Amino acid sequence: MRLVFAGTPSVAIPSLEALVASDHEVVAVVTRPDAARGRSKRLVPSEVGQWAADHGIPTLKPTHPRDPGFVAALTELAPDACPVVAYGALVPQHVLDIPRFGWINLHFSLLPRWRGAAPVQRALIAGDTVTGATTFRLVRELDAGPVYGTTELPLIGTETAGEVLATLADQGATLLLDTIDALATTEPNPQTDEDAVTLAPKITVEEARLDWTLPADHLDRLIRGCSPEPMAWTTPGDERFKIALGRPTGEAGLAPGEVRAEKRRVLVGTGTTALELVRVQPQGKKEMAGADWGRGLHGVEAWFA
User: Fold this and answer.
1) β-pairing, 147-154 with 82-85?
2) CB 31 within 8 A of CB 63
3) Whole-angstrom Cα distance, residue 256 to residue 253?
4) Strands 258-261 and 147-154
5) Helix or strand or coil: residue 68?
6) Hey, which residues does 289 pair with through a beta bridge?
7) Whole-structure pTM over 0.85, yes or no?
8) Strands (E), 31-184
9) Among the listed residues 215, 216, 214, 200, the one whose alpha carbon sits nearest the alpha carbon of residue 165
10) pLDDT tens-digit profile of 96-133?
């Protein structure tokens, strides 16, 4: 089958690798335009764009999928299908109609739960006990197209969003390849359970701010759901202080936001019991162990707002 793959971040690369290694022909890759990064603001390709360049695959980088030049190029390529993983732009209907089997999206949730840009993050924050990935045909409505297949991943309650995404990227690559293999003989099933729909918009920086009056288990889920991006944060004084990983301890005795630095750990009071700071990132510094940061307190009283 003749394919044009669409994706942007590194989480899409396992799927691209699987399709390139298969019997299908990946004739081009579509990704977001190069973006300015770092202090130099040098334009850098996306992770998928760089992978495609390294492997000699022609790459299209439209500002928007409706751009006439892109529409003409995709029409000329005449793909049978366009597999999609985290591309990052809405595809208009006349472009969805170009490949004969449509655009086949790999989405990191069990649809119709968690439609949107941050399904894994929202699943962890909500305390879901299972997540997974779904392949479906793109339609104009957000993540509402008919489903080809799913793969499940149980959650034990200690994973970060980054860890879950890495696992689902690999699991999902197999699912996407199986879906593409069967496209010519398989019809997708409509998403019919509208009562099960939940939305997963991108997490804002303000949403990632920690409210220490909330229960420890709630804060733990928020921290894991925001790790590694945008990373949960708080404010000791006027500086933003990021927390990459915490751990509920079940220990009482600290007021919400009160920090206690011990020899081998740092605890913070919450609305219930204390939370241990496992990995932190003070402003202007690299990520470090919470205990290493705590040694710099030297017995000074500290509070998080």
Assistant:
1) unpaired
2) no
3) 10
4) unpaired
5) helix
6) 279
7) yes
8) 35-37, 42-44, 59-60, 82-85, 103-107, 130-137, 147-154
9) 200
10) 999 999 999 999 999 999 999 999 999 999 999 999 99
* Token couple for 101: 């089997």
Check residue 190 and report its DSSP letter: P
Q: Which token pair is 146?
A: 């008919």
Residues belonging to the chain: 305
Who's near 300: CB < 8 A, 6+ residues apart? none
Burial of 228 (0-12, 13-18, 19+ CB in 10 A): middle
Closest CA to 86 of 193, 148, 155, 173: 173
Q: What is the pLDDT of residue 298?
A: 64
Q: How far apart are CA 278 and CA 145, in angstroms?
A: 40
The first and second tokens of residue 31, run together, are: 């990704």
289: tokens are 């162990």
Residue found by looking up tokens 């733990």 in the block: 220
- pLDDT (tens digit per residue) in 31-74: 999 888 877 778 899 999 999 999 999 999 999 999 999 999 99
In this structure, how many other beta carbons lie within 10 angstroms of the beta carbon of residue 162?
17
Q: What is the CA radius of gyration of the chain?
A: 22
